[in-house]
Write a structure and sequence with these properties.
The chain has 207 residues and is of the alpha/beta class. The protein has 8 helices and 8 strands; from the N terminus they run βαααββββαβαβαβαα. Strands 1, 3, 4, 6, 7 and 8 form a 6-stranded mixed sheet that branches. Strand 3 and strand 4 form a beta hairpin. The protein binds zinc ion (ZN).
Amino acid sequence: MAKGNARGDGAAAGRVARRGVDKDAIQKAVLTILRAIGEDPEREGLIGTPRRIANMYEELFSGIGEDPMALLTVGFEEQHKEMVIVKDIPLQSLCEHHLLPFHGVAHVAYIPNGRIVGISKIARLVEMLAHRPQVQERLTSQIADLLMKGLRARGAAVVIDATHLCMTMRGVKKPGSRVVTSANRGIFRENPSTRAEFLTLLGRPAG
Ligand SMILES: [Zn+2]
């Protein structure tokens, strides 16, 4: 049993050649949107907005084209075969339906099969996948599937607990509502007591 709270980011591992975002095109698009909503993009407060948004999107979508499997190839052999849990990994992403943020925490567990990975790599994996247009359900599954594949783990489990601005500030406007998703793979799916141990360690009722 090993537990850790991951806060740091990872190294540059996992970076592959990517085309990058077209910041000129983003700036033009933002200008178009500002005009379309009836604003004056030349006024003082807005004059730098297209440039700021282009820079921001470059950062927030930096996970597009990066290879998450590369993060897991830097694992190492270790005869640890008990559950590893990384709790409370901060998560910020953008929902692909509205490009509005959703944010919360991810809890990630796996049971190694002779191969483990640095704790910071797990946090980096979550961050890389979150820095793409996402839906929370897919993000949850992707993390679990990558751990299974990249580490040949005996099992993987992921819980994400997040608030979606597209639910709280627009549309149905339900402030305070949270979306909880989970994915269980391998032994976490097959063995209810393993899943229960994970949920207990998260401080959640095993249901
Ligand atoms: Zn949305």
